[in-house]
Backbone:
């Protein structure tokens, strides 16, 4: 079974520029998560999709971050404009909706550096 | 609200020492509990899980028991190896119409020969 794919692996941009990250979840997984992991901290949930609908975006800075999941499969996360404090690893994860104990599978992440 | 608290690291141990990493949680309802591990240069991967009170999750010599009375899910291993050096994250999954997964801050473990 193919895992969660993310690209790019690394990205360096200047502040005020825009950037986009892509995620391809495991086939058939209805739930897709985007997390932000700042160095030395635990992953913080930014947005959660169930199929192609948003079920939680309470911690997404909506003035600069946006995300979509077209057709309930791939997802993109965009930052515009980026700030220095956005430097972090952005993790995508997916899970099926079998039951409440279903694990989430994570991609390798995209490491963003804003200079 | 729902949250996870882990002991701060780093935890530094000699090979074959006993490991405990504490994790406590605050949650409404009956969450599932997980330990994820992040090895250097790799992504997060599930180490073990427990879905109800008194369940014990185990994998690769690691164990954790879901204690509802103390709202804890402490990770233990009887004899650590250098290859166990990683960051360990306690996580909670709760259902409020959808499965929301939240993480603790992580505990870095360094095992020396």
Residues:
């Amino acid at each position: 079974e193919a895992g969660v794919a993310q690209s790019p692996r690394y990205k360096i941009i200047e502040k005020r520029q825009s950037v986009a990250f892509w995620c391809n979840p495991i086939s058939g997984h209805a739930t897709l998560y985007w997390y932000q992991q700042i160095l030395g901290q635990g992953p913080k949930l930014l947005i959660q999709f169930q199929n192609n609908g948003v079920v939680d975006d309470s911690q997404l800075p909506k003035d600069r971050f946006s995300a979509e999941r077209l057709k309930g499969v791939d997802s993109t996360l965009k930052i515009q404009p980026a700030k220095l404090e956005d430097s972090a690893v952005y993790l995508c994860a997916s899970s099926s909706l079998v039951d409440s104990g279903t694990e989430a599978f994570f991609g390798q992440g995209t490491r963003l550096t804003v200079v | 609200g729902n949250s996870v608290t882990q002991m701060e690291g780093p935890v530094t141990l000699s090979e074959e020492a006993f490991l405990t990493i504490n994790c406590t949680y605050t949650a409404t309802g009956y969450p599932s509990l997980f330990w994820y591990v992040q090895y250097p240069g790799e992504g997060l991967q599930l180490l073990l899980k427990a879905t109800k009170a008194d369940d014990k999750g185990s994998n690769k010599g690691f164990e954790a028991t879901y204690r509802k009375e103390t709202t804890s899910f402490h990770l233990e291993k009887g004899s650590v190896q250098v290859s166990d050096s990683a960051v360990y994250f306690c996580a909670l999954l709760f259902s409020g119409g959808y499965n929301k997964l939240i993480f603790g801050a992580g505990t870095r473990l360094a095992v020396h020969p």
